[in-house]
Automatic annotation (TrEMBL):
This is EGFL6 protein. The keyword Ion transport does not apply. Transmembrane segments: none annotated. The lineage of its organism: Eukaryota, Metazoa, Chordata, Craniata, Vertebrata. InterPro entries: EGF, EGF-like_Ca-bd_dom, EGF-type_Asp/Asn_hydroxyl_site, EGF_Ca-bd_CS, Growth_fac_rcpt_cys_sf, Nephronectin_domain, NOTCH1_EGF-like. Residues 32-71, 112-150, 157-195 form the EGF-like domain.
Length: 197
């Protein structure tokens, strides 16, 4: 079985046929399924879509049950949690719907963890970390673009000389470099390459 375009979050099952892992869809299994938009809805009250999955949380005064339903809880109501709560051995604890969120100093609201600045996020050498609320993603460094080659996604150098995205002078030559480019004035001209006289 060979899949010319690959299966990003799935397995190649036959000629250009991908079997996606749960939570992903598309011809190459590269799209996240928004479970929150499915019918029947997976959560009784509120739903937060995550990469490849989803999280349920309840309205104030309700407690999240393992099946995604919410049950009335007078103790939760008293605590006034932002994303619902759970009772553990008689103790009421507020919840955050994602691992990229943590309880704030008041113990009721959730604040974002910046995985990029704390070093929790690991991106490969030619990618940079971009923080999002409750998560993060790895983006190609400037001068690189996401390409699918040899059955995998990687960041490939953008040849600014070919794509014509350089700012070289009309009387200069464009020279591509890894992640960037250089400009060199043509013979008979002098300057930085961006200005040639």
């Amino acid at each position: 079985a060979t899949c010319a375009h690959g299966c990003k979050y799935g397995e190649c099952m036959g000629p250009n046929k991908c079997k996606c892992f749960p939570g992903f869809t598309g011809k190459t299994c590269n799209q996240d399924v928004n479970e929150c938009g499915l019918k029947p809805r997976p959560c009784e009250h509120r739903c937060m879509n995550t990469h490849g999955s989803y999280k349920c949380y309840c309205l104030n005064g309700y407690m999240l049950m393992p099946d995604g339903t919410c049950t009335s809880s007078r103790t939760c109501d008293m605590v006034n949690c932002q994303y619902g709560c759970e009772e553990v051995k008689g103790q009421v604890q507020c919840l955050c719907p994602s691992g990229g969120l943590q309880l704030g100093p008041n113990g009721r609201t959730c604040i974002d963890i910046d995985e990029c600045s704390t070093g929790k996020a690991v991106c490969s050498y030619n990618r940079r970390c971009v923080n999002t609320f409750g998560s993060f993603y790895c983006k190609c460094q400037q001068g690189y673009e996401l390409k699918y080659t040899s059955s995998r996604y990687s960041c490939a150098d953008v040849n600014e000389c070919v794509t014509n995205t350089h700012r070289c002078n009309l009387h200069a030559e464009c020279l591509n470099t890894q992640g960037s480019f250089q400009c060199k004035c043509k013979q008979g001209y002098r300057g930085s390459g961006f200005d040639c006289a």
